[in-house]
Specification:
- The complex is a heterodimer of chains A (300) and B (392).
- Chain A contains twelve helices and no strands.
- Chain A is globular and about 75 Å long.
- Chain A is 75% helix and 0% strand.
- With 392 residues, chain B is an alpha+beta fold.
- Chain B is built from 13 helices and nine strands.
- Chain B has helices at residues 7-28, 46-52, 104-107, 179-186, 188-214, 218-232, 235-245, 250-277, 280-288, 292-304, 306-329, 341-351, 358-385; strands spanning 58-62, 72-73, 90-92, 97-99, 110-116, 122-124, 127-130, 138-148, 154-164.
- In chain B, strands 1, 2, 3, 5, 8 and 9 form a six-stranded mixed β-sheet that branches. A three-stranded antiparallel β-sheet of chain B has the order 4-7-6, with no helix packed on it.
- The longest helix of chain B is centred in the last third of the chain and has 28 residues, at 250-277.
- The chains are: A mainly alpha (300), B alpha+beta (392).
- Chains A and B meet through helix 1, helix 5, helix 10, helix 11 and helix 12 of A and helix 6, helix 7, helix 11, helix 12 and helix 13 of B.
Chain lengths: 300, 392
């Protein structure tokens, strides 16, 4: 449902409210589901609705305390976890763009059909491989040829080579898995071809001016739309990779809290989930804003 | 009708048949497919042992009989390396085990003997040979020695040799279960649970997407809103919660998988229906007096969405396999002692540290093969059914 209005502030407000509503409803659903988790540590006289109320209070009113282990404040844990998680997300997106952008631009300029077939064929065969398999195989390769297992614990104490392995291997697994690279490559290639055929770009070319800054500007929105559509898959992939390589990020904390038998750290789960949902909300909101701002035809 | 069959489609069909065969085998012969052998036996093929087996051979040099020596790894760049070829680590009962330590030129300068090994192993005609019998099943510590003709230095190498009744081409795990048998047994979770996800995601997506695309009322807006909410929740989190709430029941988790895939399918069907809903033929059908459902499902969906539905079905099955493997790996899916590919990978993760790679390598290949089978088959079938490609 798109409101076509001359009032830009109204549009922005509408988008903000729409995405915020999605964020709060998602969080509400998570609280409802979390209250269903069987937990022998919770007294039986506490009803389902009381649990839901508690979790909603924790989530919406930011009432976090110490974690179940009692050693750390939940806010500190979430801050530390967010740092690690977003490092992985940012670096994996960087690697995807470093590979997909030049490849897409090169292929779209149709200078080398053989390269296009080879690259596209290889990517389409490798793209169905899930992040879990990439992570396992990369870990195996690094162990066989590098004689080390890239776990996070080695990151802080290791030398430069060790740190590079420990950082790059999980990032490579995320970048290569679940078809993220293929989707970006396809989007960049298709959009570049579309832009290259635009009359205004042909006019720029005819005047002898460089075209790639125009092409890159035109690619910003499609890249961001693809990115925002992939962010939930990225987050799922992060959880897997953090478990495999023992990165103590948000995903690992959610996994450990849910997997631990006995008392589960619900505030930690809710806090971590809130950060991840907020990331999704932010990407969706920025995507919607950019859709209006960068595509002038929609600005009415 | 022009039939367009290509290599990828044929490959996909072949892989799918292999997967279905594994499933059938797993259902009918579940008790007998997992053979038992020596624990942690590497794969029998020498190529896999040579390239990927990480446990080095220990070489010990004794300068004279009175000094203490420390085992050291073989220096591959050293000249005159007597044991220049890696020995095979596996043997099969009734078949001759043969290890030729180096080239003829080097062998002629040295003498060889077995320091430690099973009875019957000897050096003869330029090779260490041994034919294990049925009483010689298990793991042996082998120590082979050599001495140069004009030297007092004795060099020996030590390695472990696994002997079994069967060859175990893909190796065994820590409990001695054949990896091939485990992979076949684990395949039974690859197709059947996926049906539930397909029912919800594809057929639910079809009806909801068609309804939402054809009608512009409050119900279609509710569908759009619900789609937005479902899309924004990270999928793995929903699967974790479904698994924990329903005691790791994979069929309930597949309901969650279907719900997670529903928004994407709804959007695709909705955009296709919206594309056609303003077309001339739809208006003509309405003028003639056909019912809305008839126009929607017969004229729009049946003739234009078949390729989309086929590829969605294939993608759903592949996604269901990925989810089952991932959840089992993260200990939220199929629980031990049931066998699943995810459990095998999880066991293999700890085996990597010991250089035992086969519990990760072969199951990963099988999983990739299964996913590719669905993707390639779905892609090929949807091209086959695309009316634009098959017009005469």
């Amino acid at each position: 449902m798109i409101i076509m209005s001359n009032d830009r502030t109204k549009n922005v407000l509408y988008l903000l409210l729409k995405n915020a509503a999605v964020f709060f409803i998602s969080l509400f659903i998570i609280c409802l589901l979390l209250a269903l988790v069987p937990d022998t540590a919770i007294p039986s006289e506490i009803s389902y609705f009381e649990r839901v109320k508690d979790y909603l209070t924790i989530s919406y009113l930011f009432s976090y305390d110490y974690s179940v282990s009692g050693n750390f404040l939940i806010s500190e844990l979430i801050l530390h976890g967010s740092k690690l998680t977003f490092t992985l997300i940012f670096l994996s997106l960087l690697i995807v763009l470093i590979i997909a952008l030049p490849a897409g631009l090169l292929v779209a300029s149709e200078k080398n059909a053989m390269f296009q077939k080879l690259f596209a064929g290889t990517l389409s065969l490798l793209s169905p491989i899930p992040i879990l398999i990439w992570a396992s195989l990369l870990m195996l390769l690094v162990f066989v040829f590098g004689n080390m297992v890239p776990l996070y614990i080695d990151f802080e104490d290791g030398d430069f080579r060790t740190r590079m392995f420990v950082l790059l291997i999980p990032v490579a697994a995320i970048a290569l898995g679940d078809g993220i690279l293929l989707d970006f490559y396809n989007k960049i290639r298709d959009e570049t071809r579309k832009v290259m055929n635009e009359p205004w770009l042909k006019a720029v070319k005819a005047r002898g001016l460089p075209i790639y800054n125009h092409v890159l500007r035109a690619l910003l929105l499609p890249i961001f739309i693809t990115l925002s559509s992939k962010i939930t898959y990225l987050i799922s992939g992060i959880i897997i990779v953090e478990y495999i390589f023992a990165w103590q990020g948000l995903g690992f904390m959610i996994w450990r809290s849910l997997e631990t038998p006995g008392a589960k750290d619900y505030p930690l789960i809710l806090g971590s989930v809130k950060v991840l949902l907020f990331t999704v909300f932010l990407f969706s909101f920025i995507r919607d804003i950019l859709t209006y701002k960068l595509n002038p035809q929609l600005m009415k | 009708m022009i039939i367009h069959l290509n290599f990828r489609f044929i490959l996909g069909i072949m892989l799918l048949f292999i997967l279905i065969g594994m499933n059938v085998f797993a259902f009918f012969f579940s008790d007998s497919i997992i053979k038992n052998g020596t624990p942690a036996r590497p794969p029998s093929l020498y190529l896999f042992q040579k390239v990927l087996y990480h446990q080095p051979i220990e070489e010990e040099t004794v300068e004279d009989f009175f000094s203490f020596t420390v085992p050291e790894e073989i220096d591959q760049d050293a000249e005159e390396l007597i044991f220049s070829r890696n020995p095979k680590r596996t043997a099969t009962v009734g078949r001759e085990y043969r290890y030729v330590p180096s080239s003829q030129r080097l062998r002629s300068k040295a003498s060889f003997w077995v320091e430690e090994g099973p009875s019957g192993m000897k050096y003869e005609d330029g090779a260490f040979i041994w034919t294990p019998d049925t009483t010689q099943i298990g793991k042996y510590d082998i120590s082979l020695a050599t001495q140069m003709i004009d030297s007092e230095t004795i060099r020996s190498i030590r390695f472990k040799l696994f002997s079994d009744k069967k060859p175990f081409y893909f190796g065994t795990n820590e409990r001695g279960n054949s990896v091939l048998g485990l992979m076949i047994a684990g395949s039974k979770w690859s197709i059947l649970p996926g049906f539930i996800a397909v029912l919800i995601a594809v057929f639910g997506g079809l009806f909801l997407g068609a309804y939402s695309g054809y009608n512009k009322n409050l119900s279609s807006n509710i569908v759009d809103g619900a789609t937005l909410v479902l899309e924004s929740i990270p999928a793995l989190l929903l699967f974790f919660l479904a698994a924990v709430i329903f005691s790791f029941n994979i069929y309930i988790v597949m309901i969650a998988v279907g719900l997670v895939l529903l928004p994407a399918n709804i959007n695709v069907i909705k955009s296709t229906v919206k594309h056609f809903v303003d077309c001339q033929f739809v208006e003509s059908s309405k003028e003639i007096g056909f019912a809305d459902n008839q126009i929607l499902y017969r004229d729009i969906i049946w003739y234009n969405c078949k390729p989309i539905i086929i590829s969605q079905i294939a993608n759903c099955f592949a996604f269901a396999i990925m989810v089952e493997v991932t959840l089992s790996y993260l200990q939220f899916g199929i629980q031990v002692p049931e066998v699943s590919w995810g459990n095998i990978l999880l066991q293999g993760k700890s085996d990597i540290y010991k250089g035992e790679y086969w519990m990760v390598f072969f199951p990963s290949l099988v999983i990739i093969m299964s996913l590719l089978s669905f993707y390639l088959t779905g892609n090929g079938l949807s091209r086959l059914l695309d009316p634009r490609k098959n017009s005469t």
